[in-house]
Design brief:
three-stranded antiparallel beta sheet; 20% strand; 15 strands; six-stranded mixed beta sheet; alpha+beta; single chain; rod-shaped
Length: 376
């Protein structure tokens, strides 16, 4: 038998309903407790504290007859009197049975109040969110998302999991950043296009754009052929361009270190270069590729047919805004790009939050800028 219990927390004038059997069993109560309502226990605690049914009714916002009915229902459920009622001006006295019941009743009420407070905190965004990420996003996008989430919800619990994989597992996460669409029961939110750029030692190529055909047979340092790297290399192959890969590494900084050392040049997504402070390195030069390669697409993924927590929903909104702001800021120039007006990484992200938000909101408002679609 399922009985719905109504707990009134009068200081905050809120009402929650819970299943009595499930709640009592979960915290170690059963048997007769399945017939006891939390409002009965709240009435009992008020009578014990105030010493009279009348004062308890005033404290709870009930009529005195309602309190009497609740205490009578409680006594029927437990099979005995919980108060002695001497009558007249004398205060009521709690019975031995009532003393036992009140001690456990207060514990039940405290747990219910804690549950109500936890639900309120959850609805306010102070829950937990698990986010999967990868290197470029971790360095550029995610710090801004985390900072804003923590500013808005100081009590939130953010768990981050970084992995370079071409088989993302969204099932155990609330959200996941990934450079591509994923088949299966997953929903997508496109954040931005991340164009590929050529980074080389200064003087390796003339200033300005470089045609991809010039990379045929050229020594190159590259990421492992997973995620969007494999698709990018296939695009080069289809164009008849076969660079000579001399070293592969998953680390963006290691790729750039090998380029500095003269091992070869590298084709990297723009996000991978944003946090590397290329503009302050006189030994390196960043070139556009013309014609350009298809850009890497950055998506935010989550399990389909699920309900977001308020914190996860807010994280999606912030990620869209941040990505839009980044795209708008870096479109005017890239640090170290040869032949193009330069703009340092610090300048891009030292702008006030309001400016970043204005840029991202403007980008977000364009029809089709961020399409939300579900995989077939």
């Amino acid at each position: 038998m399922n009985i719905t219990l109504d707990l009134e927390i009068h200081r905050e004038k809120r009402l929650i309903s819970i299943n009595s059997i499930a709640f009592c069993d979960a915290i170690g109560y059963g048997g007769l407790m399945s017939d006891v309502e939390l409002r009965h226990l709240a009435a009992m605690a008020a009578v014990a504290d105030e010493g009279s049914f009348g004062r308890a009714a005033g404290r709870l916002g009930y009529t005195q007859s309602t309190v009497s009915q609740q205490i009578a229902a409680l006594e029927k459920a437990v099979g005995g009197a919980v108060f002695d009622r001497p009558g007249g001006p004398k205060p009521v006295r709690i019975t031995p049975l009532g003393t036992v019941l009140l001690a456990h009743g207060r514990e039940l009420l405290a747990k219910a109040q804690a549950m109500a407070a936890a639900v309120d905190r959850f609805k306010a965004g102070d829950g937990r969110v698990d986010i999967g990420t990868f290197q470029s996003v971790s360095n550029v996008i995610l710090p801004l998302v985390v900072r804003e989430l923590r500013d808005e919800h100081p009590g939130c619990d953010i768990r981050l999991f970084e992995e370079e994989t071409d088989r993302p597992e969204v099932r155990e996460l609330d959200l996941m950043f990934f450079d591509g669409r994923v088949d299966g029961d997953v929903e997508h939110r496109k954040l931005l296009d991340d164009p590929y750029l050529l980074v080389a030692r200064r003087g390796t190529f003339p200033d300005g754009p470089v045609h991809p055909a010039r990379l045929d047979g050229v020594p190159m340092v590259a990421h492992p052929p997973i995620c969007d790297q494999a698709r990018m290399e296939q695009a080069l192959t289809r164009a008849g361009v076969r660079p000579h890969i001399v070293f592969r590494t998953a680390g963006n900084e290691t790729v750039l270190s090998m380029v500095r050392a003269g091992m070869g040049s590298a084709i990297l997504p723009q996000l991978a270069l944003l946090s590397a402070d290329i503009g302050s390195d006189a030994s390196l030069c960043v070139h556009e590729l013309k014609p350009g390669l298809p850009p890497r697409e950055i998506f935010l993924l989550w399990q389909a047919h699920g309900t977001h927590s308020p914190l996860a929903a807010r994280a999606i909104e912030i990620a869209v805004e941040v990505a839009g702001g980044i795209a708008a800021q870096v479109s005017t120039g890239f640090p170290g790009r040869c032949g193009v007006a330069e703009q340092s990484y610090e300048a891009i992200f030292a702008c006030p939050e309001t400016r970043l938000r204005e840029e991202s909101q403007a980008t977000r408002g364009k029809e089709g800028s961020f399409e939300r679609d579900r995989s077939e």
